């Protein structure tokens, strides 16, 4: 990778276009200094890894694999600890094992991790007891505490985002390649609170079956290297464009631009304007790109996005992450899938059953019902079954911790429980046991498909 003027010619074309949801940085000179420093930092990922993920997502688009994308709504700087990272990874590994074994499908594992520090918000300000301050936009921008000091956007935080991403990615790489993710550890991933939950017990049964299969293979003299490590990728929303473009580099192998802040980046529902800066930025980089599609998306929008982001119609380049809401998915999704399929494009279709199903409980907590999450996934599978297309995966907000943020699930969380461990800085996440519940149910849907 090289840093040179060419990068900023190619990677900065977004600057002349309207960019939604950008922080109101009070000190532009400080921002420029930070950008210059970020531009000198080493890449967090290697362009070849992004290419490999694009190939894996190509298999998803062709109907040969399933994408599991999940992690925090918003990562936090003070949660970059071994336990939190391991718990999140453990959850994704357990879900991956369930989907691979019970769904009999190769699973591409991608975390919302090591870069998910920026949040688009519905309102620019928040008012409490007559005091109005800028809204919290993620740790990359401002602090969560409701004080003028914390809420003032500070560009120095972008450097902390880089450092937090680097530490997280380092540990994720160590866990996934250093023995922890070895398939012989399937039981070890279940050794804590989740073990006693209904989904934990179901998982234990599945882990025993995997063990038996491994012992059988071992007895036959087969001990594949592939079982000892896990291919795991990092993704986040490419929201704060000053950060993303400062981490965009020319790949010395190919001369093409890659955003080396993560393997895959996605553009959110609030920033996917066809003539906006985010789509322009994404069109210039070679990473696999996701775009969130909410219920107002028209088939024309989807086709224009394909034209802009995947003009070569390359399977794996573009992933549509649909987030319609359980009540709308059966009505809104079919036309989109139909028209896109008819155009000849081979995108990967992924279901985000979280963002269309948020509501405020009487206690004031933002929450989601597990049953709505499940119903949106069901609707997603029904639509693809009816059209003969491939339900390519799920995109979920989850944590490895025992939180009480979403209601329902086998180890049921009630509305009255929400206050007990409500720890998210933004949107409610599935806890570990709810995540496992979902994986088992999705595996069943996949098998039935
Ligand atoms: O995660 C998604 C968005 O950032 C979030 O839903 C916005 O939440 P808000 O409506 O509280 O701003
Ligand atoms: C903001 C998000 O989602 P959406 O863009 O779909 O609202 C998100 O996934 O964090």
Automatic annotation (TrEMBL):
Q: Which UniProt keywords apply?
A: Amino-acid biosynthesis, Aromatic amino acid biosynthesis, Transferase
UniProt GO molecular function: 3-deoxy-7-phosphoheptulonate synthase activity
- Organism (species): Streptomyces hesseae
Protein name, as recorded: Phospho-2-dehydro-3-deoxyheptonate aldolase
Q: Which reaction does it catalyse?
A: D-erythrose 4-phosphate + phosphoenolpyruvate + H2O = 7-phospho-2-dehydro-3-deoxy-D-arabino-heptonate + phosphate
- The EC number(s) given in the record are 2.5.1.54
In terms of Pfam families, this protein maps to:
DAHP_synth_2
Q: Which family does it belong to?
A: Belongs to the class-II DAHP synthase family.
- Protein's pathway: Metabolic intermediate biosynthesis; chorismate biosynthesis; chorismate from D-erythrose 4-phosphate and phosphoenolpyruvate: step 1/7
Reply yes or no: does the keyword Transferase apply.
yes
Q: What InterPro entries does this protein's entry cite?
A: Aldolase_TIM, DAHP_synth_2
Establish whether keyword Lipid metabolism is in the entry: no
Q: What is the superkingdom listed in this entry's lineage?
A: Bacteria
